[in-house]
């Protein structure tokens, strides 16, 4: 693997290999050698972060490498220096680049010009690093992917887009429930269906949640959407994962949320903190899957 810009850059066998390595690293945390000794990771951040920044920094530290947090405001990225020139220069200094950016075109441009691996740590189109952690969490709780039914409730955003593609790769059935006008990217849906994804898009949360093995949601107002907050809160009325919606899913259904969560908006606090919730395992697994991803990207698995 050279770059990871989309979860669809990985085939099913690649995902299983990465998850196996992540599970091993999780089991043996603190007992491994330092396979990334003398390697450096440039972390470009245009957006604030908790889990992405901390998990990547800890991953590199525990693997013996060094991570550099590069706030976009401190860089000349796209201002007095082109994105391409930044990628070329970083390629002379570090061994890999992660980028958490507003526009997907930014990570594509970095990858086009870099001579080192570029990893999409979040863009407006996709969030593949999050989906790797999600898949590890689902496998830990459910064992296998094929035949599972996932229901996404809420905004058809970047995480939803990556979930659609991941479901296509792993042969999971996916139901997406969102208000009219907030559907996932049409190009993503077309790609997933071409891969054989069994995906249904509906405006009815109950229809989506009925019989689901996994319920998944995200915030209704993402970074960059703050000006639309009042309208979004109105439009998403009825799309909360609460106890009533959970009752329509299978009894052993697990609940995912990529965090941060707004209790009382997209998810009820009693569900987020309840027995079906695995959100803390999901958050922790960002660390283990990103360790595995970095090792594979740098050819050290």
Structure, explained:
By secondary structure, this protein is α/β, with parallel strands linked by helices. The chain has two domains: 7-127 and 286-297, Rossmann fold (3-Layer(aba) Sandwich); 130-282, Rossmann fold (3-Layer(aba) Sandwich). The chain has helices spanning 12-27, 51-62, 83-93, 104-113, 128-142, 158-170, 186-194, 205-209, 229-235, 243-246, 269-272, 279-297, and strands spanning 40-45, 66-71, 96-100, 118-122, 149-153, 173-177, 199-202, 214-217, 254-257. The strands form two sheets. The protein has a five-stranded parallel sheet. The chain has a four-stranded parallel sheet with strand order 2-1-3-4, with helices on both faces. Helix 6 links the parallel strand 5 (149-153) and strand 6 (173-177). The radius of gyration is 19 Å and the shape is globular. The termini are close together. The model has no long low-confidence stretch (mean pLDDT 95).
CATH superfamily membership of the largest domain: Aspartate/ornithine carbamoyltransferase
* Beta fraction: 5-15%
Rg: 19 Å
Average pLDDT, all residues: 95
- Major beta-sheet overview: 5 strands, parallel
Give the count of structural domains.
2
Distance between the termini: 11 Å
CATH fold group of the largest domain: Rossmann fold
Tally of helical runs:
12
Please write the string of helix (H) and strand (E) elements: HEHEHEHEHEHEHEHEHHEHH
Give the fraction of residues assigned to helices: 40-55%
CATH architecture of the largest domain: 3-Layer(aba) Sandwich
Strand order of the largest sheet: 7-6-5-8-9
Q: Give the structural class.
A: alpha/beta
Q: How many individual β-strands?
A: 9
Low-confidence stretches: none
**Global outline:** globular
